[in-house]
Amino acid sequence: MATVLCYGDSLTWGTVPNGGRYMKPLRWTSILEELLGNDHQVINYGLPGRTTIWEDPFRDGRNGVSYIQAALETFGPVDVLVLMLGTNDLKRHFNVGAFEAAKGVEKIIERVRMPNSQDFPSPSIIVVAPPNITEPTGDMAETFSGAVEKSQYFHQHYQNMAMRNDCLFLNAAGVLQASTADGVHLDTNGNEALAKALVPFIEKLLG
């Protein structure tokens, strides 16, 4: 049995558009585990608000690069790491774009491949470019001001970065769209689509 660690933000955690958390069976990580035949352990380590490398002045503990090694040791040895981060990097107060978000994911990959105190081998990595942000609603319209256009470049910058770092790459925008309810998070169809799209990648890595 292999261990697949899914390291992400609210899209991985299972945030319901406009509030709440999906029940466990509806989260893409749980669907993925079921599609793999329950032969492998799929761990959901999503955290709402998590960024790639940025410290959020409004929410503590959201810097993704700071916690990745602890996560790998906590759940290790990890065979496959699924990285889907960057949506929160586009919040207005960070003032960065998809290029910087991709560079942030690259820093996480570098940290993943550093030696660890348990001597666990480095996992295979699947980089997932987050889905495009469409039409943020409510408070998120202010939080993600300017992010709709920036998110259109996730695919390009993430794919280039993944190739440069010998990672598999999946463009989430190619298989799903953000919920029309809030323009950011995944609806149930999006969760299912992402899980299905990841299956062949993981099966390829695990043989």
UniProtKB/TrEMBL annotation:
Residues of the SGNH hydrolase-type esterase domain: 6-192
Matching InterPro entries: Ester_Hydrolysis_Enzymes, SGNH_hydro, SGNH_hydro_sf
GO molecular function: hydrolase activity, acting on ester bonds
Domain of life: Bacteria
Listed name of the protein: Lipolytic protein G-D-S-L family
Organism per entry: Marinomonas mediterranea (strain ATCC 700492 / JCM 21426 / NBRC 103028 / MMB-1)
